[in-house]
Design goal:
3 helices, globular, alpha+beta, single chain, about 25% helix
Length: about 150
């Protein structure tokens, strides 16, 4: 009986999580984020450590926002490639830091990167959209009016 109860609870949690990720007026592209090598000039605003529900509310209330990327798991480190010129003057939202980091391969590196943790959200205009893979780490949510324009 205990196992059945745990199974029901696990199923309910998955259902609630999946349902929460769906919202009328938005479409989702799973396991993607704005590419780390992009210049992020299309950022409208950022919020740290908020719920997905709060992210939807912010996106709906701001007509400048066309889509947002929600960090759903762990920590995502987007390394700025060494061949990409970075100027702190062009980072008004202070998304970039100089830090030690660890590549997926396990090797360590040092340089400029953008670090996002679970619940961090970056809101964007569609101009300049450049999505990259973020398997298990982030999802992008698009206002449906922005897709058809």
């Amino acid at each position: 009986m205990k196992h059945i109860f745990l199974l029901i609870v696990a199923f309910a949690i998955q259902f609630v999580t999946l349902h929460a990720a769906e919202r009328e007026g938005f479409s989702v592209k799973r396991d993607v984020a704005q590419y780390g090598g992009s210049d992020y000039v299309n950022v409208v605003c950022i919020e740290r450590g908020i719920s997905l529900e709060n992210a939807f509310e912010i996106a709906q209330s701001n007509s400048d926002i066309d889509y947002f990327v929600y960090t759903k798991g762990g920590q995502m480190v987007l390394v700025i490639p060494s061949d990409v010129h970075y100027d702190p003057i062009n980072d008004p939202f202070k998304l970039v830091s100089e830090s030690n980091f660890r590549y997926d391969s396990g090797d360590y590196g040092h340089g400029y990167c953008r670090i996002f943790r679970q619940g961090d959200v970056v809101f964007f205009k569609k101009e300049g959209m450049w999505l990259g893979s973020a398997s298990g780490l982030a999802d992008a949510y698009f206002k449906e009016k922005s897709i058809s324009e």
